[in-house]
Write a structure and sequence with these properties.
about 40% helix, single chain
């Protein structure tokens, strides 16, 4: 089980998700309609709910292969299938923010 930091999630990771349109808007991430990650909608953000949901997307055995890192990453950069790819490379600052949070929780 990862030891992910909630305060860092709220202050750094959740804003990345919001900036990139990752929420329950439309049919994306609304109650698991399209996959395994359900997030709260923009008009009713619930950081505690989102933290639990995103934490489930972290792989303890191989942090860099965590779905929260591979699904939004371009296939050419090592990503896995997902309809929306906000990160073209692993050097994207928003990607690095999420990756740093994941690594800190998996390798404290």
């Amino acid at each position: 089980m990862p030891n992910l930091d909630y305060a860092t999630f709220v202050s750094e990771v959740e804003p990345v998700l919001e900036r990139n349109g990752c929420d329950a808007g439309g049919d994306c991430h609304g109650g698991g309609i399209r996959g395994t990650l359900a997030l709260s909608p923009q008009g009713a953000k619930d950081p505690a709910f989102d933290f639990v949901q995103v934490s489930r997307q972290v792989s303890v055995s191989d942090a860099d292969q965590s779905p929260i890192l591979t699904r939004p990453l371009a296939l050419a950069a090592g990503g896995t299938p997902h309809p929306y790819k906000p990160f073209a490379t692993t050097a994207d600052t928003d990607y690095v923010t999420i990756q740093t949070w994941v690594h800190a929780g998996v390798n404290p």
